[in-house]
Amino acid sequence: MSPHRFDDRINALSDQDWAWWPLLALRPRREQPLSEARLFLIALLFGGLCAAVSVALVWLLFGSPLPLAIVTVAALTFALFYLTARLTLFRSWNRRALRLQRANAQRED
């Protein structure tokens, strides 16, 4: 799959309001780049929820885990969420934002 096609699919998904619920206020305008700080906040909120679910699954499957296991599972889940968002959403969103900014600048000239 070509990079542009991949970006288009990621952006089509990230343009859906339901994909951002309940954090729709954190979604930047399409022509605005997604900052590292905003990505980290999104990852902290969505990834934190995923981490809580992961810890709950470990608890249900293996019984009461050690505190170190809880922290490890939560940290790994958050890190995986952040890296996945960084390699997909962040790149695709910012490539599109740059294209839209260039197109807007050309129209203004």
Oligomer: single chain
β-sheet strand percentage: under 5%
Helicity, as a percent range: over 70%
The 3D shape can be described as elongated
C-alpha Rg (nearest Å): 17 Å
The pLDDT mean sits at 93
Tally of domains: 1
Quick one: how many beta strands? 0
Number of helices: 4
Unreliable runs: none
Q: Tell me the series of helices and strands, N- to C-terminal.
A: HHHH
Structural class: mainly alpha
Can you describe this structure?
With 109 residues, the protein is mainly alpha-helical. The protein is 78% helix and 0% strand. It is elongated and about 65 Å long.
Keywords, separated by commas or semicolons:
single chain, 109 residues, mainly alpha, 4 helices, elongated
Quick take:
The protein is mainly alpha-helical and 109 residues long.
Secondary structure blueprint with pairings:
Blueprint: H1 3-14, H2 17-20, H3 36-62, H4 67-108
